[in-house]
């Protein structure tokens, strides 16, 4: 099992991709004047291509040398390389037209992926050398935070039936074909950029309405479960394996939400004094719902968000599909904030987690790949670790809510120092020559992370990791000539 010793099969079965090289021929003009102009242009030295800027709002980073990353040398890099190659496949299939609409990080990964497919097969040493040659490491954190924050998710395994009965009463629905979660209305007025403003209104039935039968009788039921609590947590995880009465297994994946914001119900138990912030976990929430059926039902309905599923053709032995459209890899795939990160980006995680027991007792130092997202995953250094399927994965994932180091590997084609020039950050006034500190901007996180639905996170407990300094590339503004004030920095 993946969680016993945190080990994976290291077999790599990859098919090399063909790389075509194109040559462009230039014809000389017979005219003498154009020929001289062309010769003059050719004689001028070609300006080196500047790396594209890396833009991650509300973040601070610290460049690291490879030997400064705790646990880097001990990881099995060939496993991470195989997961990275899986993410490369859709990136390499993208057309120039598609890439023109994507951020600089996507295009940089396209270049790296082109080099990666030429490296297979590789061992751990070769894979590590590839990452070190093609990427640079930066330790990332939200403004004002000292570390990243990590939770875990998994794929539940529950019992179900295709038909309703006295035992199986809880339906899981497919997405209604006529569902509208946001109605778009074009405004007659134009904004500052000259584009018409778009107003969004409307929402679909909420959780209480759906549970009370708003969708009953429409033929949208995929399967029926025994326990509404199983259905609730299947929605939170975003996928589920359902064992039918004949022994077969069907696989369901996230299809859509109902348009309502996700609300973390664990915070209500904390506010009511039922559990403490340190004790809260998925298991504690489930225990409360099982011991208090009516109160548990009311608690679930405080989260108006509802998830619809789709049936997949995955076998019993394949992993769930992530938002990148690829099978996830247990203990190598992570869900990240899709508004800030690009799928396929490698991230090295160093955190101590409660894997073997309820106390943080296992050092988790691994190179991961961003392949999924979730509404509860908000912030530049926020990640949800995929742990696979089953009870063991469920127990561990439900306990994860810990700070740790979030080290992103950025392609050499990107320049993190350009963040300062492209997105200037306001700096506070220095005092007595002390180093300038970035103003605090905390990102609250929730202990019950979701792989898919939208979230209202809760801030983690005390962070004890080393402080991350703002990038050295964010200088103080230079003083204006002739207006120097020795008592203040230049403005």
Write the layout of secondary structure elements.
Blueprint (H helix, E strand, L loop, with lengths): L31 H12 L8 E2 L5 E6 L12 H17 L2 H4 L4 H13 L7 H11 E8 L5 E8 L1 E5 L8 E4 L9 E8 L5 E6 L5 H5 L9 E5 L2 H10 L1 E5 L5 E9 L8 H6 L10 H10 L1 H9 L5 E6 L20 E4 L9 E8 L8 E12 L8 E8 L1 H7 L4 E10 L2 E2 L2 H5 L69
Parallel strand pairs: 1-18, 4-16, 5-10, 13-15
Antiparallel strand pairs: 2-3, 3-17, 4-17, 5-9, 6-9, 7-8, 10-11, 11-12, 13-16, 14-15, 14-17
How would you briefly describe this protein structure?
The protein is an alpha+beta fold and 491 residues long.
Describe the protein.
The chain is an alpha+beta fold and about 500 residues long. The chain contains 12 helices and 18 strands. It has a 6-stranded mixed barrel. Strand 10 and strand 11 (about 250-255) form a beta hairpin. Helix 2 packs across helix 4, helix 2 packs across helix 5 and helix 9 (about 280-290) crosses helix 10. Mean pLDDT is about 80; it is low at about 5-45 and about 420-490.
Keywords:
491 residues; alpha+beta; six-stranded mixed β-barrel; six-stranded mixed β-sheet; 12 helices; 18 strands; 22% helix; 24% strand; disordered C terminus
